[in-house]
Amino acid sequence: MSAAPAGTTEQLPASARVRRLFREQPVVPLLGLLAILVAILLTVQPGILNRPLGWANGIVYFAVPLAILAACQTLTMLTGGIDLSVATIASMTAYVMATQAPSQGDPAAILIALALAAGVGLINGIGIGIFRVQPLIMTLATGLVALGGANVYQKLVLTAGSRVPEPVAVLGSGTTFGVIPNTLFLFIPLALAIMILLKRTGYGRMLYAVGDNPVAARLAGVRIPQVLILLYVLSGLLAGIGGIVLAGAAKTATLNAADAYLLPSVAAAVIGGTSIFGGRGGYAGTIVGALILRVLLGLLGAMNTPEPIRQIVYGAIILGVAAAYARVTDDG
Amino acid sequence: MTEHLLEATGVVKRYGGVTALRGASLAVRPGEVHALLGANGAGKSTLIKILTGTVRPDSGSFRVGGTERTIRSAAEARAVGLASIYQDPSVIPDLDVRDNLRLTRTPLDAFRGWMAELGIPDLPLDVLSRDLPLPTLRIVDLARALAAEPQVLILDETTAALPADLTERVLEVVGRQRDHGRAVIFISHRLIEISTLCDRATVLRDGQTVGVVPIEPGAEDRIVALMLGPQAERPETERATGPVAAGIVGAALLGAEAGPGGADAGPAPTAAAAPGELRLAARGIGAGSRLHDVSLELRAGEVLGVVALEGQGQEELFETLAGARRPTAGTIEVDGRPVRFHHPADAIRAGVVLVPADRLQALLPQRSVRENVALPFSAPFRRWGLRRGAEEPRKVSAAIERLQVDTRAQAEVRRLSGGNQQKVTIARWVALGVRTLLCFDPTRGIDIRTKRQIYALLRELADQGAAVLLYTSELEEIRLACDRVVVIFGGRVVDVMDAALADEPTLLRAAYALPPDAPLPVLDEAAS
Q1: Which chain B residues are closer than 8 Å to A208 by Cβ?
Q2: Among partner residues B360, B371, B386, which is closest to A201 by beta-carbon distance?
Q3: A123-172 confidence digits (pLDDT tens)
Q4: How many residue pairs bridge chain A and chain B with CB atoms within 8 Å of each other?
Q5: Of B474, B473, B479, B469, which is closest to residue B501 (Cα–Cα)?
Q6: Is residue B455 exposed (0-12), middle (13-18) or buried (19+ Cβ within 10 Å)?
Q7: How far apart are CA B273 and CA B260, in angstroms?
Q8: pLDDT digits (tens, 9 = 90+) for A297-331
């Protein structure tokens, strides 16, 4: 009997196995939750079945920008940070692109706008990485400063006119063969790139390490400021891309276009299993989290309830999922 | 049979995939000091946490003073008369001592009385806890527990990092608990302490109670046999080879003089290695308020020991050499050339790596064993791209295998036992390729089997050309693991000696900066 090792996985009770599944593969139970929500929606609104593709496309158009902004939260949360400037960066990028397009041409306008997004990210990165400002404070502050700057810019370019470049509009709201939303041609490669970044690159390893234990990471030779500066630049760029996609979907750009996405972007990452304390999570869960939030909104919209009640239910369900998740994955 | 003060039977606890306890039992009589023994990972800490209400068992029955009860929180444990002291004092650093005592409603007079008994009679109560030295805090913690007059006092590795003199005082006071019909549960890796202090011992192995042994002359052998289990009787050829291993087993377990193994193979290992070229040199380095002027030379192929009492600048020395702290004086040389380390990454590039004292400073608790070992591979900026090639995975696997890291609890390193965690911190540098390894107290609070493996490994690495600097708080290990030894006192080197001549009394005298024939200092000194 003493020959048996002190722990074998076969004899786990069912509850422990479920916990392990939740910890290590949060996507599986999340997909289950998504399926349940969709099933409820279908019973409440059976009409959807008459035009399933149109309904799915509607979900995708709004879930993709959310998922892109939630990528910013996922990456920064892995290091124990957060990026509250994403909404401002997204709106600002879209607005700069739309106002520069008439004079600079489409490609230049997009590049200028994205460079600006990366620039705000760089300021975040320097503040957080080198001057060790709390990420929450730093990104909140740069978000406000950027919003003020964008408002000044708006006054300056008021006469110039604005238009969303045609390719962006096609990407954001068009379909291929009438069924496949074009945003997927941007989003699927982008999502794969983010997942590969996290799972298969040295930099991805750095993000998890810095979030899990910065002291240990430093002693192992990780230069944390470098990691963080690059991280927030990436986050700024992603926010900019999210803003462009959003402008393409709405075919217009305003300075508050992305505001409604800020807190859902954090919620999508948390529901997707990324810990706000750093070191745990991934992007696949975040994507499912974004889909869940979208379907949930559709469901509440279909229920014919007054707006305040909808908001209460929406918030309560997010809280419930996050709490259940924390409870299940917590140790005994 | 005597009425038991505290009795736990059939305790089972699983953590995810790992079974920490699979039917442990413990019964403590009034008026005894009861040792709880077992290799790391045997389940001692888990059992203690269950007894004190911080962890819920999956099953098991508990009797306190003869009546069945379950303990669901630390407050309940206190209420039934259980008090526990851990290696890290449970005081709030930003409160002064008085407020800390108030938090636990500790009567001040009783506290002062116990402090006097423990050799620190006039501690001012209005100092912030963070300003007190660690050994003093441990004593504060203990006095506070004693003041609550617990029926059962649990000491979990409390003596592991105390200076020798304070340890003696603690053991004496603890031993006197018996006189009042109370009991003490005592956990320590030092068998010497067990044999002088304890009445009986419960031995755990692989989560089960494998024996209850009365402590009497000769009991050590039986305890060791129980702890190591049947495989200990096999010849140890493939694990820890040669006289080094044998000597370490014998001496570390039984004290250099006591066991037959120690007598046979004492100084054997030191003769073997002939030091090679100069690898790392410190020239008069100082840092912070504790490290003033240390010079030492570390050569390829040698294990250089560092001995010091607590807080003599050794932490600062290791941190400075590893690039984690800037020196305020002196220079560091690698391979004969002066270097300036601005970041641990600079030291790592020069081949100088640190295994820190605290495993929490070295590990990524939520990452897997492999990720922890592979971490330094990806740290340089140029390695941030796609991870390609089979070289890194191969080196990582080889290191994990070489250190015999138990990877059953693969997914997260924090679920490993302390000994296995320590192996992971070393495996990381073995995988990367060690040139100069700085090990700060790598065997503290670690079981004998792992200790033996770690020393055998350090020796082996040195034989293969690495240079190893080893600080250890366990003096009896110096002779077995090192070639030479440097003694530091007050931030300065006070002695350098051949490790073969460095027995415990000699080292202790040197560590107190006393002439070789002076008597050892009296107990009260550490209080000041």
Answers
A1: 364, 367, 371
A2: B386
A3: 999 999 999 999 999 999 999 999 999 999 998 887 677 889 989 998 88
A4: 140
A5: B479
A6: buried
A7: 25
A8: 888 888 777 888 888 888 888 788 778 777 766 54
Fold match, B6-230 / B270-351+434-522? yes
CA dist., res. A134 & res. B360, Å (int)? 23
Q: From the list B56, B363, B387, which residue is nearest A216 (CB)?
A: B363
Length of chain A: 332
The Cα B15–Cα B199 span in angstroms is: 32
Is the CB of residue B305 less than 8 Å from the CB of residue B481?
yes
Contacts with B374 from chain A: Cβ below 8 Å: 205
Å between B306 CA and nearest CA of chain A: 21
Please answer yes or no on whether A221 and B380 come within 8 Å at the CB atom.
Answer: yes
CATH architecture of B270-351+434-522: 3-Layer(aba) Sandwich (3.40)
Map out the domains of chain B as residue ranges. 6-230, 231-266, 270-351+434-522, 368-433
Distance CA B223, CA B226 (A): 5
Q: What is the CATH number of domain B6-230?
A: 3.40.50.300
Q: CA torsion angle for B402, B403, B406, B407 (degrees, to 10)?
A: -60
Chain A, residues 135-174, CB within 8 A of chain B, namely: none
Task: Give the SS3 label for residue B465.
Answer: coil
pLDDT at B227: 75
Token couple for B358? 């605290």
Helices and strands, number each (H, E), in chain B? 18, 20
pLDDT in tens, B190-249: 777 888 889 999 999 888 999 999 998 878 778 877 876 664 333 333 333 333 433 333
Residues of B in contact with A3 (CB under 8 A): 230
A187, amino acid identity: F
On whether any CB of chain A is under 8 Å from the CB of B232, the answer is no
Q: Which amino acid is at B523?
A: L
Residues in chain B predicted with pLDDT less than 50, given as ranges, are: 1, 231-273, 522-528
CATH classification for the domain delimited by A27-329, as one of 1.10.287, 1.10.3470, 1.25.40, 1.10.238: 1.10.3470
Place of tokens 């030779």: A221
Calpha distance A121→A127 (Å, rounded): 10
DSSP bridge partners of B96: B128
In sequence order, the 6+-apart residues with CB closer than 8 A to the CB of A6 are B18, B19, B20, B22, B41, B43, B206, B207
Q: What is the 3-state secondary structure (H, E, C) of chain A?
A: CCCCCCCCHHHCCHHHHHHHHHHHCCHHHHHHHHHHHHHHHHHHCHHHHHCHHHHHHHHHHHHHHHHHHHHHHHHHHHCCCCCCCHHHHHHHHHHHHHHHHHHHCHHHHHHHHHHHHHHHHHHHHHHHHCCCCCHHHHHHHHHHHHHHHHHHHHHHCCCCCCCCCHHHHHHHHCEECCCEECHHHHHHHHHHHHHHHHHHEHHHHHHHHHHHCHHHHHHCCCCHHHHHHHHHHHHHHHHHHHHHHHHHHHCCCCCCCCHHHHHHHHHHHHHCCCCCCCCCCCHHHHHHHHHHHHHHHHHHHHCCCCHHHHHHHHHHHHHHHHHHHHHHHCCC
**What gap in Å lies between CA B59 and CA A199, rounded to an integer?**
39
For residues B490 and B314, give the distance between their C-alpha atoms in angstroms, rounded to a whole number: 10
Here the ipTM equals: 0.87
10 Å Cβ neighbour count for A183?
A: 26
Chain B hits for A6, CB-CB cut-off 8 Å, are: 18-20, 22, 41, 43, 206-207
What stretches of B148-212 show up as alpha helix (H) in DSSP?
164-175, 191-197
